[in-house]
Write a structure and sequence with these properties.
Layout lengths: L3 H12 L4 E7 L5 E11 L2 E8 L8 H13 L4 H16 L3 E6 L7 H5 L4 E3 L12 E5 L4 E5 L17 H10 L4 E6 L9 E6 L7 H46 L9 H18 L3 E8 L2 H8 L1 H17 L6 E6 L2 E7 L3 H16 L11 E7 L6 H17 L5 E2 L6
Parallel strand pairs: 4-5, 13-14
Antiparallel strand pairs: 1-2, 2-3, 4-9, 6-7, 6-8, 8-9, 10-12, 10-13, 11-12
InterPro entries: Diguanylate_Cyclase, GGDEF_dom, Nucleotide_cyclase, Rev_trsase/Diguanyl_cyclase
EC number: 2.7.7.65
Organism: Billgrantia tianxiuensis
Length: 412
């Protein structure tokens, strides 16, 4: 008979999620015996199971449980999680072999194998409806022990392995196994979720050890789900970042020439002008226009005209520094913002681009030239005034015969 104190202790343990308790019972000869009390379900009946608890020398189960549980809970990757779990199982149970199950694709997983995680093919899966996270089967594939989650105890009338026993018996005998411990990391996430430990000798799991293995299984299941969710979140973040980058590029890029559009280059000019005014550093702009572009469109069509604009933009871009900015100002006009350049340096740069364009024929048009106006930032300048001076200088280049570079008139 169980005393009232023992019944109360067992009820409290079950309420906390523990499958049982250890209690000390007196014998008739004056000695005492340590027993493990637990509840199991079979069919519609709940059975109180009483087992003698063997003293396990050298096994500080609470300490080992804390150590291995912490390692598993802190695993930063699935491969590290599996490695810690397999090592914990081998240390705690003493089984000869602990491996991951590969019941799909012949058990092959090159990534995990490269990490040194042992994997082998297994001929069955676990019946998910049974939800038995831990089971010990004998060499005849019969269930020796089943441990269910607290509050969801399994029916012990059958083994929840979706496999005819002969096939599983062949798998066990082929490995000379007389006992196999199967852990099911039950979860909805994809991937491997079964672990097998096998031994060439019949085995029994002491109740406290069963409880500890069940807890480690639950920790591993939760950690694996969290790692999967983290991986999915990182993947979604990468996709979102890539899409935002593409959207930003579309918002800032002229689709025809693939340089900055008017809106973007105005933002750049405003930012660079503010920095130049604040730091007292030089800043210049190059405004250039493709010569006789209307005639090109009239003679060759707009498709060729579009090709000319694209080639002009790419040629000009190739002569600018990484710190310079090129944008399409409108129509056949382009503007380059060149930080750190005074008027003389900007004029030299404009001439290099001007000559390069004239020396790079574009089929079927042939030679294509551009007229350049160069203006440098002055004290108290605004973006509008700076671009206006460059525009006046560009029209001076047009009047000078095109295909040349001009600066604003003195006093402009």
């Amino acid at each position: 008979m169980l005393g009232a104190d023992t019944v109360t202790a067992l009820a409290r343990a079950l309420a906390r999620g523990s499958p049982g308790i250890t209690a000390l019972f007196g014998r008739g000869n004056g000695t005492s015996q340590r027993l493990y009390l637990s509840l199991h379900a079979t069919g519609r009946h709940v059975i109180l199971e009483v087992e003698p608890q063997q003293e396990e020398a050298g096994h500080d189960l609470p300490g080992l449980g804390y150590t291995w549980g912490t390692r598993i809970a802190r695993a930063s990757s699935t491969s590290e999680l599996y490695a810690q779990l397999l090592q914990a199982l081998q240390v705690l149970t003493g089984f000869e072999s602990c491996t991951l199950l590969g019941h799909d694709n012949d058990g092959r997983d090159p990534h995990l194998e490269q990490q040194g995680i042992p994997i082998e093919s297994f001929p069955c899966t676990v019946d998910r409806s049974a939800r038995v996270p831990l089971m010990l089967i004998d060499g005849q594939a019969k269930p020796a022990e089943l441990v269910g989650s607290p509050g969801s105890l399994p029916d012990l009338s059958g083994c929840p392995l979706c496999l005819p026993p002969p096939k599983l018996r062949d798998w066990l005998s082929g490995r000379q196994a007389r006992a196999a411990l199967i852990l099911d990391l039950y979860e909805a996430t994809p991937g491997r979720s079964l672990v097998v430990c096998r031994d060439r000798q019949p085995r029994h799991l002491a109740p406290p050890l069963r409880h500890l293995l069940l807890q480690l299984t639950q920790v591993a299941t939760l950690r694996r789900a969290l790692l999967h969710e983290k991986q999915q979140t990182q993947h979604r973040y990468r996709l979102l970042h890539e899409r935002n980058t593409r959207l930003q590029r579309l918002a800032y890029t002229d689709p025809l020439t693939q340089v900055a559009n008017r809106h973007r280059i105005e933002q750049v000019l405003e930012t660079e002008l503010a920095a130049a005014s604040r730091n007292g550093s030089p800043l210049a702009v190059l405004l250039f226009d493709v010569d006789r572009f209307k005639s090109i469109n009239d003679a060759y069509g707009h498709e060729v005209g579009d090709r000319v604009l694209h080639r002009v933009a790419q040629e000009a871009q190739s002569h600018l520094r990484n710190s310079d900015y090129l944008g399409r100002w409108g129509g056949e006009e382009f503007i380059a913002v060149v930080p750190g350049c005074d008027l003389t340096q900007a004029q030299e740069l404009a001439w290099r681009v001007c000559r390069a364009l004239a020396q790079s024929p574009i089929e079927p048009v042939g030679q294509v030239t551009a007229s350049f106006g160069v203006a440098a930032c002055q004290s108290g300048d605004s973006c509008r005034r700076l671009v206006r001076r460059a525009d006046l200088a560009m029209y001076r280049a047009k009047r000078a015969g095109r295909a040349c570079v001009r600066t604003p008139e003195i006093g402009a």
